[in-house]
Amino acid sequence: MKLKHSLILILIVALIIPALPAAAQDEEVTLVVWDNWVRDAEQEMIETLNAEFEAAHPGVTIQREVYATDDLTDILPLELSSDSGPDVAMINQGYTGMGALVQAGLLLPLNDYADQYDWWSRYAEGLHSRNSFSEDGTQFGVGNLYGVSNTAEVVGVYYHRDIFEQYGLEIPQTLDEMEALMDTLVADGVTPIAFGSLDGWPAIHEFSVLQGVYTMLDELDAFMYRLEGGTFDTEANLQAAQKLVDWVGKDYFTPGFAGLDYDTTTSEFLAGNAAMWITGNWMTGTIVEEVGEEPIGFFPFPSDEAGVPAIVPGGVGLAYGIRAGSEHADLAAEYIDLITGPRAAELLFERGFFPATAIDTSLLTEGTLTADMFNVWSAVSGANAVGHWLDWTAPNIDANIQELMGEAVSPEQFVSDVEADYVSE
């Protein structure tokens, strides 16, 4: 009887004491988030989303820390192993980035959250594979999902519309037309391509777009995912290396490019000191902020056959992952759902970035840089011509390309050096 009376008393107390409001029930929680949104247009977007998340989660504070991509890759292995490390972090893909973290057991598999929030439908299955690894971290492109991206990335050619108009230039449809265009510019004393290789990674773009002219996607996939038969020692890569050396010799790039960093290259291009710039669509927001939508356009790097897109480097941006030891994994997943979802896509698009999640195409205005960017992504993704970032599986390739463009090694030696590094990893 005592037990029965106790249960009745508990029920009475529960009925007469009103439920605490949700805000009062919320525990004070600090969610530590690391990202690489360093430019002004990016900062505004991410701070808006963080404020909205905090407003929707009383008691939760986002502690945001910003790092350059290379710094993230360097320090995350140590920080994710600490109890005070970030709950959520942006992670560079590939063996030396995401793969190393998975192998060390530092990332939480996200498959259950992907089911819960339907992250699988955010973008194509093939793009999710770029954020996937086997559980032991040894096989790229398969197994568990360890990150979700909120941007799509594609390398193309930015160009000054007025320079093209001044010299009567049309957007090239083939590699031969591209080279003829650049010969015209050089003859008139105009630098065709803004480029600086000091940071290393931009050189990957210059090689990759040429590689994409000669290689097949299945050959590239085998190399990237280290499938059976995967190799860098191919005729296509040798052709691309030789062509890149030829371009250096023809003065297609900014003079003194070896000593120029990415920010300086950006300034050189925006100032009109070069007609074109081969880089990724992540710079569109900055360009629109600096000069507006109309002065600069964007086109896909041409192949050797008109109407057939070349394979171009791209895919999805850095992925948001969750530290395996986080005490706030469910909350972290809610944050990732916001930061990679439709609201984030809306803010990204407004600022000239290309979200991985689909956007309303009625928002596009033809003849603008943003519309050009969208059309390029649609063309190359629709043709299954989206390649990879080579440093995901060959982490020293930027230094190898710097040597090649500095004519310190021959194209044959370059291919041999990259292959030797590849098989030793």
In words, what does this structure look like?
The chain is an alpha/beta fold. Helix content is 46%, strand content 12%. It is built from 19 helices and 12 strands. It has helices spanning 2-16, 22-25, 40-56, 69-79, 95-103, 111-117, 125-128, 161-166, 175-187, 201-214, 217-224, 235-249, 262-270, 284-291, 329-339, 342-350, 369-382, 397-405, 411-424, and strands spanning 29-35, 60-66, 88-91, 132-133, 144-145, 148-149, 152-160, 193-194, 276-280, 296-299, 314-316, 319-322. A 5-stranded mixed sheet has the order 2-1-3-12-6. Strands 7, 8, 9, 10 and 11 form a 5-stranded mixed sheet that branches. Strands 4-5 form a two-stranded antiparallel sheet. α10 (201-214) crosses α12 (235-249) and α12 packs across α19. The longest helix has 17 residues, at 40-56. Mean pLDDT is 90; it is low at 1-25.
